[in-house]
Amino acid sequence: MKRFLTKHGILVLSAATAVAVVLSLVSFFSSNTDLLTNIVNTVSTPFRSASAAVAEWVGEKLRYASEYDAMKERIQELELEIAKMEEQLRQAEADSDENQRLRKLLDLREQQRDLQWESARVIQRDASNWEATLSLNVGTDFGVEVGDCVITEAGYLVGLITDAGSNWSTCTALIDTEFSMGAVIFRTGDVGVAEGDFNLMQEGELRLGYLDAAATPQVGDLVVTSGLGGYYPAQMVIGYIREVMTDDDGLAQYAVLEPAAALEELQQVFVVKDFTVVE
Hints:
Layout: H1 2-31, H2 33-112, E1 113-127, E2 132-136, E3 149-151, E4 157-164, E5 169-173, E6 180-185, E7 191-195, H3 198-201, E8 206-209, E9 222-225, E10 237-246, E11 253-259, E12 268-277
Antiparallel strand pairs: 1-2, 1-12, 2-5, 3-4, 3-12, 4-5, 6-7, 6-9, 7-8, 8-11, 9-10, 10-11
């Protein structure tokens, strides 16, 4: 034992001293709980503050996400409502335009002739160096037949139906080289034939030919359908004389006509299925 103390006495003393210090500290803190609490609180407060800040930040983000989703859903609902309103507005405008066209056509029918017509939409235009046609969305199921004339709401001639199916038809425009119809100069009563011309078709115009040698056409004269033979209604406006010309042989004259109907802008036309001339 003496040898052990001699050899390890310093270590034992050091261990005893450490234990005594620990016991003293434990005894001190046990009898001074306020100090321990203060130290614990001092050390832990920054961590609790950081934790609270993180929790608040996360809460705000969650609330923002929830409000954003609700706002996004509401925006989508409003966009759908706006789209429906815009569609209704477009339909109302289209209906208003169609009603105006129908009123004009009814006025024309009451003033000039008894017409039976079918409203049609232009669904396609085919214009080339060889032809000028319009595809319509009505056909034989609607009483439309080959040979019916096609007009605008103002009574301006557009062309003739040259082909028809159950729910479609083709209108050959009056500037097409296949078009031909009896015409009369309204001012003078001079009779001729309004017909498509290959060269004039490129300019959107047609020819008034077969005029009598004594005819006196003038620039600006109104040209209408003659109605001769009863095949087509009379006094449908074809167009206006833009120029008076002489044939290559220098013996006969003809006129260049500018159509009254704006063929490139047509969206709705009317197919005259039958008519009775009002004397």
